[in-house]
Write a structure and sequence with these properties.
The chain is flat. It is built from four helices and 40 strands. The protein is α/β, with parallel strands linked by helices and about 350 residues long. Strands 8-11-14-17-20-25-28-31-34-37-39-40 form a twelve-stranded mixed beta sheet.
Length: about 350
């Protein structure tokens, strides 16, 4: 799909410097720009590339003034904030790329399901009994939507995602390929013989509006009640969220984070990749947890935590400095011990 500089400027309320009829049909990094692509320049470190880029259109800040001649084939669109405007343009581009409303065959939609307008249901998708789906929602091929599931409007379920029975997903959500929402929580009770009996998991998962979940994540259903992902939360690929966990509003979890059962994570929390959160604890609003940290206890106030167990980051840095010096310290202690032994021997022989 092609866009002209004039159309782009209209979408972004920008000013055109160059040919308004210049057209693009793809996107590229400014340093890798080719004819017919659109780039942007927001970071001054990349300014050198704008003088040699092959891109046809470049979005720049209104404050940008070239220090030397630009390529004659390049048209600029000047805006207030190049980075945010480019992100906005990506959203528009993504909307154009979305599948058009259709129900592909073969697919299965239960007669008891209630589906909205302008849906896309991909081939081999399964929509179970009593499912409710809002308007303009897209469910890609090979997806499974179990019985009694509710999905809001403008939500996208990508290929191969599985939504188990009774789960609820809000408006404007994105669930990427391979993710499983509502599988059984890890509930087992040991008996006297050392064997494990399964504890039925009869709850569900509730995902509120504007949540995005990456590929191959697992959000387990509650034993009783609900596992809850609050509005605006962002969950990366390969994240594990156990039964009865609650993730607060606008909280972000990076790849391979594991959250154990019944943990309550507050709002605006940021958790780095491969961090582990113990079960039955609370994490205060605004907390930041560095990648690969382990959090075994409740965090009552917002801090930046690092290490396992996680401690305030400045304390961790000081401790790590001491740890790195440990071989040197041990060597010095050994030398001091040997010196003391020699002094004692000399005293004994005196």
């Amino acid at each position: 799909m092609e866009f002209s500089a004039a159309q782009i400027a209209q979408i972004l309320a920008g000013e055109i410097i160059g040919n308004p009829e210049t057209k693009v049909k793809g996107l590229s990094k400014i340093e890798e720009g080719t004819e017919g692509t659109l780039s942007f320049l927001a970071n001054p470190k990349y300014e050198e590339y704008i003088y040699s880029t092959g891109s046809s259109i470049c979005i720049v800040n209104k404050t940008f003034e070239p220090s030397r001649e630009l390529p004659s084939t390049l048209t600029l669109v000047k805006v207030e904030d190049a980075y945010s405007c480019f992100a906005r343009l990506l959203e528009v581009y993504n909307q154009f790329k979305r599948k058009k409303p259709a129900v592909e065959q073969p697919s299965f939609i239960s007669e008891s399901a209630k589906v909205g307008k302008d849906l896309y249901i991909g081939a081999f998708a399964y929509i179970g009994n009593n499912v409710i789906i809002g308007d303009n929602t897209h469910i890609y091929p090979g997806s499974y939507i179990g019985d009694n599931v509710k999905i809001g409007a403008n939500t996208t379920i990508f290929a191969g995602a599985k939504i188990y029975d009774d789960c609820i997903i809000g408006d404007n959500c994105i669930i990427h390929a391979g993710t499983v929402v509502g599988a059984d929580g890890f509930g087992f009770a040991p008996n006297e013989a050392g064997e494990y009996s399964k504890v039925p998991q009869i709850g569900n998962v509730i995902i509120e509006d504007n949540v995005e979940i990456g590929a191959n994540a697992a959000i387990d259903r509650a034993t009783m009640g609900s596992t809850i992902i609050r509005k605006g939360a962002k969950i990366d690929n390969l994240v594990q969220i156990a039964h009865n966990v609650e993730i607060g509003k606008n909280t972000a979890l990076a790849s391979q984070v594991g959250v154990a059962g019944s943990a309550k994570i507050g709002e605006r929390v940021q958790i780095g990749g491969q961090a582990g959160i113990s079960g039955h604890i609370h994490i205060a609003d605004g907390t930041q947890i560095v990648a690969q940290s382990g959090i075994p206890n409740t965090i009552k106030k917002a801090e930046v935590l690092m290490g396992s167990p996680g401690i305030p980051i400045e304390d961790f840095k000081k401790s790590y400095f001491g740890f790195r010096k440990l071989p040197f310290i041990l060597k010095k202690l050994q030398e001091l011990e040997n010196t003391l032994k020699n002094i004692n021997k000399t005293s004994d022989n005196a």
